[in-house]
User: What shape does this take?
Amino acid sequence: MHRYLNTTLAVLAAFAVVVMFATSGEAVVFFLRGTALERPLLVLGQTNTIAFNLAVGYLVSAIFWLLVVYVPESTRRKVLRENLSRRY
Assistant: This one.
């Protein structure tokens, strides 16, 4: 269950990054020029503030979730696993 959740969140974050770049209305970022992503970004390059704000909001939420939920939970599991392995 956790693996599917993490994979889904990562795929959605990658999609949000593409949407963020595509809807920003700015020129293509220098490190994406000449790559396979430049053409789709130019085709999709219409300014859409709602999609841009949603994409940025999702990325910020995903980062906060990572810091507030995922890291402490994985640390707690690691400590619990180490303590159980020492006892048995």
